[in-house]
Design brief:
The structure holds 2 protein chains of 2 kinds.
Chain A lengths: L4 H31 L10 H28 L2
Helix pairs in contact in A: 1-2
Chain B lengths: L20 H32 L9 H27 L3
Helix pairs in contact in B: 1-2
Classes of the chains: A mainly alpha, B mainly alpha.
Pfam families (chain B): zf-Tim10_DDP
GO molecular function, one term (chain B): metal ion binding
GO cellular component, one term (chain B): mitochondrial intermembrane space chaperone complex
Chain lengths: 75, 91
Amino acid sequence: MDSSPELQRFLQEEKQKAMIAEMVGKLTSECWDKCITSTPGSKFSSSESTCLANCAQRYLDMTMLIQKKFQSMQQ
Amino acid sequence: MDPFSSPSPSGGSSGQSVPSADVLMDQVKTQLAQAYAEEFFETVRSKCFTKCITKPGTSLSGSESSCITRCVERYIEATGIISRALFSAHR
């Protein structure tokens, strides 16, 4: 099967999109569990929506911290 | 029926025909979209069952039904909040 560069590019792009979708899905699941502790209401309280946004950003901070730790352990 | 097969052309020794790149890309996109939708449905189902059906009765009560409706809406909203938080953090 001829794998044209167009197909390669397309597959790369879709792979990226899938990785992002997976991360969003996983994070939403975990942050929902952490932040939405009572019965869902007709809208989020401001503490709930703040918690969700914080949760995503702290996850990123934590990821960088872990990467740095791994790098320092390799030296 | 295998979505990637197409009827083999008459004549020609190997008889194998390959869909065009465009057709393949469309099929991949459709199948991916379907897979995402199914996974999302499953996640929402699980989360809202946990939150709303705490003591299963002999039928879904009115409060359980409205809880589930709100839960689905909130979960979709939460997905948006997380997406935006992840991608505005990169600026």
